[in-house]
Design brief:
Layout: H1 8-22, H2 28-46, H3 50-63, H4 67-80, H5 83-100, H6 103-116, E1 121-126, E2 135-138, E3 141-142, E4 152-154, E5 157-164, E6 171-177, E7 182-186, H7 230-236
Parallel strand pairs: 1-7
Antiparallel strand pairs: 1-4, 2-3, 2-5, 5-6
Helix pairs in contact: 1-4, 2-3, 3-4, 4-5, 5-6
């Protein structure tokens, strides 16, 4: 964990100082839970248990955002092999520290992000035909049309690309990306969905009896014994 030593005191102290700043946005219980998760995540990082540490830091950051947490999360994601996610987290630190005028921390995060940039894998989703209401998704998240056809950094691995539009047959495909390479997939022109045929009646189901003028009279239902027999009783007496 040599990579964290220059920032260990910096980030841990920063997290504690920012807890008070985030209290207005997060409930007290959330801040306390975030601190516990941060400490546990750091412990797991020291043991190089990246896949366990990163989710704890992510949840800590969600509950009580802090620059120190975001920086450690970025470092954890890089060790986990999620380079694009790490790069994005470092850029978030750059933005936050720039707004706060923290030049030293900004430059540190900027250097880490710059070192990751040439190693990033990218995915380009080409959309030649655009049906009305077309929606394109990557890993379940809708992508704005502005990024269609753009090589976007993604973590290495399999990514599910989907396309759907009203009145069209949905399409999906899985694309594998690798660090340092750009993968491309093309969304086809979605074909119209087949028209649904009207439901046909089941021949085994009897048709309902006709009613109204001109229809034959229906036989009266048989006497089930539930009618009132008061009149007959009086006659017999």
């Amino acid at each position: 964990m040599k990579i964290l030593r220059p920032f260990a005191a910096l980030t841990s102290g920063l997290f504690v100082s920012l807890v008070g700043a985030t209290t207005a946005r997060a409930a007290g219980d959330d801040v306390a839970t975030a601190q516990v998760l941060f400490d546990d995540g750091k412990r797991l990082m020291s043991q190089e248990r990246w896949s366990e540490a990163c989710p704890k830091l992510q949840e800590s950051q969600r509950l009580a955002p802090a620059i120190g947490t975001e920086y450690n999360l970025a470092d954890c994601l890089e060790h986990q092999g999620k380079l694009a996610s790490s790069w994005a987290a470092f850029l978030e630190v750059v933005d936050l520290t720039h707004k706060r005028g923290e030049t030293q921390r900004e430059q540190a995060a900027k250097g880490r992000a710059a070192a990751l940039a040439p190693r990033l894998g990218k995915l380009t989703i080409q959309v030649p035909a655009r049906a009305p209401g077309l929606e394109v998704l990557r890993d379940g998240e809708a992508l704005p049309p502005e990024v269609w056809g753009v090589a976007v950094p993604v973590d290495a691995g399999d990514h599910r690309v989907e396309a759907r539009a009203p009145g069209r047959v949905a399409w999906s495909s899985t694309v594998r990306t690798a660090d340092g390479a750009t993968a491309t997939t093309n969304v086809p022109d979605l074909v119209p969905a087949p028209a649904q045929a009207p439901a046909t009646p089941d021949p085994s189901t009897p048709a309902p009896a006709a009613s109204g003028p001109g229809s034959p009279p229906q036989p009266a239902p048989p006497d089930t014994g539930s009618a009132d027999h008061t009149a007959a009783f009086i006659f017999l007496v």
